[in-house]
Design a protein that fits this description.
Layout (H helix, E strand, L loop, with lengths): L2 E7 L7 H20 L2 E7 L14 E4 L18 E5 L3 H5 L7 H21 L5 E4 L2 H11 L6 E3 L15 H11 L7 E5 L4 H4 L1 H13 L5 E5 L4 H8 L4 E5 L3 H9 L3 E4 L8 H8 L4 E4 L4 H5 L3 E4 L4 H13 L1 H15 L4 H14 L9 H19 L1 H12 L3 H10 L5 H6 L3 H9 L1
Parallel strand pairs: 1-2, 1-3, 3-4, 4-5, 5-6, 7-8, 7-10, 8-9, 10-11, 11-12
Helix pairs in contact: 1-14, 5-9, 7-12, 10-13, 15-16, 15-19, 17-19
Length: about 425
């Protein structure tokens, strides 16, 4: 019995944790599939989830990265086994507080209200909902009215081969300070993009300013693209360094060279930066509400995100106590071992297999080919410049031309090679 899984993905979202989650799950599920041969998994772009008969060929459909409050697209709700992953519903829980401006809030409020009504009205169309923390589960029950028995908690992971402690933290710190043209002194890191309201960036800046006035020597390195308002606030405070978009290899070294992550968010669904930093032995000063306490446990310090003075006190407490820093670093690294993408993928697969109605005996090889083929279609949708040149070949299922293109061009692309399993293996086998 082979369970055929269609993983609907939102690839191509720049610097998005939702994209990262899907990529990691696809990679790990692909590794399992190639060994077990008890299931096949293919990728379909979220934007084209309803095209053709994409849902009819699968035993279950999974959207692991819905994010927020959105109800799944109508095209997917016809599936007899639909699995939805929800990554935080902060807009529903906190409303105006997580929006940058009143204008943004007024624009999105009617949309949010409509989507929440869909959840309450059509929840029977969804087989299971999975989320990454108990905190998120409670919010989904309270605000979306999803029955508790439909919800599974499956934590996300971290790549321990990538996020690991520096061999020499001082050398790493010196390298990062040099790269960003700042004095070689201890620093904290903060991750904030356009979601600075949720990340509590402005209140953090004020807290950091007070901590600097109290004599802490640190800089604050801010990772991510931010709008002019945040840059203006940063310019008013000595020691804040706006790093903008940072390549992954630089970001990893920035984390490794830091003393702590400052992330006093007013809401976190899971908080990938928390586990990435902990995996490097870097503790967090984070918020005492929603998911962070559940994630960091004794690998960080907790503060009231709405209290500038409380955030300041935690920063000063951390800086002045070397023994505390060492203990938190040790506990953070130990806690990070509880999270892995392979563990996440295994739990998700177990959820699919145990809750999928499958009455057909399937041929693994044939299903594998179909999964790979549909994944290839998705690759072409990800890359518009490839779509036209392969469109007719895809429609005609002209394997020779598709494989020739994919092997000579497609496998050079990181998305294809690293994430879109089973495509890579399938192409290599067919090309022989």
């Amino acid at each position: 019995m082979v369970v055929k899984i269609n993983l609907i993905a939102n690839y191509g979202l720049h610097a998005s944790s939702l994209t990262l989650i899907t990529q990691k799950l696809f990679l790990e599920l692909g590794k399992i599939m190639n060994k077990q041969k008890s299931f096949t998994i293919a990728a379909t772009m979220y934007s084209s989830a309803g095209v053709g008969d994409v849902n009819q060929h699968y035993d279950c459909v999974s959207i692991p990265n819905m994010g927020g409050y959105n109800f799944p697209p109508k095209s997917t709700t016809s599936s007899k086994n639909l699995f939805i992953g929800i990554v935080g519903i902060d807009e529903v829980v906190l409303g105006r507080k997580v929006f940058r401006t009143e204008k943004d809030w007024k624009r999105y409020r009617p949309i949010i209200d409509t989507e929440v009504k869909k959840w309450k009205k059509h929840i029977e169309k969804i087989n299971r909902v999975h989320t990454s923390t108990v905190s998120d589960k409670e919010q989904i029950i309270d605000y979306l009215k999803v029955p508790e028995e439909k919800i599974d908690v499956i934590p996300y992971g971290v790549d321990h081969n990538v996020f690991k402690p520096s061999k020499d933290k001082r050398v790493t710190r010196k390298k990062i300070c040099s790269k960003f043209y700042v004095k070689d002194i201890p620093y904290f890191v903060h991750v904030s993009e356009t979601n600075w309201a949720r990340k509590n960036t402005i209140r953090l800046f004020e807290a950091f300013k007070k901590a600097k006035s109290a004599g802490i020597p640190h800089n604050l390195m801010v990772i991510g693209r931010n709008e002019p308002l945040i840059h203006k606030k940063a310019q008013e405070i000595p020691g804040i360094v706006m790093c903008g978009y940072v390549k992954e290899e630089d970001m990893i070294e920035m984390i490794q060279g830091a003393d702590a992550l400052l992330l006093p968010s007013i809401h976190e669904g899971f908080g990938l930066p928390l586990v990435e930093c902990m995996s490097c032995g870097i503790p967090a000063i984070t918020s005492n509400v929603f998911s962070p306490p559940e994630i960091v446990k004794d690998g960080g310090l907790l503060a009231d995100p709405y209290s500038t003075s409380d955030i300041t006190e935690r920063i000063i407490e951390f800086v002045k106590n070397k023994k505390l820093q060492e203990d938190l670093s040790k506990h953070a690294l130990e806690r990070s071992l509880d999270f892995s993408w392979m563990k996440t993928a295994e739990e998700l697969l177990k959820l699919f297999q145990e809750n999928t109605e499958n009455e057909l005996d399937n041929d693994f090889d044939a299903d594998y080919d179909l999964a790979a083929y549909r994944t290839l279609v998705t690759v072409c949708q990800i890359h518009p410049h490839l779509k036209n040149q392969t469109r007719q070949d895809l429609l005609e299922m002209n394997y020779a031309k598709i494989i020739n293109w994919a092997v000579t061009v497609g496998l050079e692309d990181g998305y294809v090679k690293d994430y879109l399993i089973p495509l890579t293996k399938w192409l290599e086998e067919h090309y022989k």
